[in-house]
From TrEMBL:
It catalyses: a ubiquinone + NADH + 5 H(+)(in) = a ubiquinol + NAD(+) + 4 H(+)(out). One of its GO terms (cellular component) is NADH dehydrogenase complex. It is found in: Membrane. This is NADH-ubiquinone oxidoreductase chain 3. Its main location: membrane. It comes from Agaricus bisporus var. burnettii (strain JB137-S8 / ATCC MYA-4627 / FGSC 10392) (White button mushroom). InterPro entries: NADH_UbQ/plastoQ_OxRdtase_su3, NDAH_ubi_oxred_su3_sf. The keyword Nuclease does not apply. GO terms for molecular function: NADH dehydrogenase (ubiquinone) activity. Belongs to the complex I subunit 3 family. The keyword Membrane applies. The chain crosses the membrane at residues 26-46, 58-85.
């Protein structure tokens, strides 16, 4: 093989046993999805915050229900350990 194919990537990882490709951790994909979901939450709640005095009580209650559902989801994600980056047990489970 060519020397460039077995050299370290830009991130500095050394190849493992001559392989330059490594398996992708599903745990990091879950964190990316959670970031996307909560980023969209902020995007959807921003217009309500801007027009808070113009929204009726029904619109405000819908926004509160939306926020409560996402907060419950966030608490469940923390409880399941999906967000814990330093937990070695979660990383071991994702490798299996």
């Amino acid at each position: 093989p060519d020397e460039a194919k077995v050299s370290a990537y830009e991130c500095g990882l050394n190849p493992i046993l001559g392989q330059t490709r490594s398996t992708f951790q599903v745990h990091f994909f879950v964190v990316a999805l959670l970031f996307l979901i909560f980023d969209l939450e902020i995007l959807l709640l921003f217009p309500i915050g801007v027009t808070l005095y113009q929204v009726s009580s029904f619109g405000f209650s819908i926004a509160i229900v939306f926020f409560i559902v996402l907060t419950i989801g966030f608490v469940l994600e923390i409880g399941s350990g999906a967000i814990s980056l330093n937990n070695l047990e979660v990383l071991k489970k994702s490798k299996e």
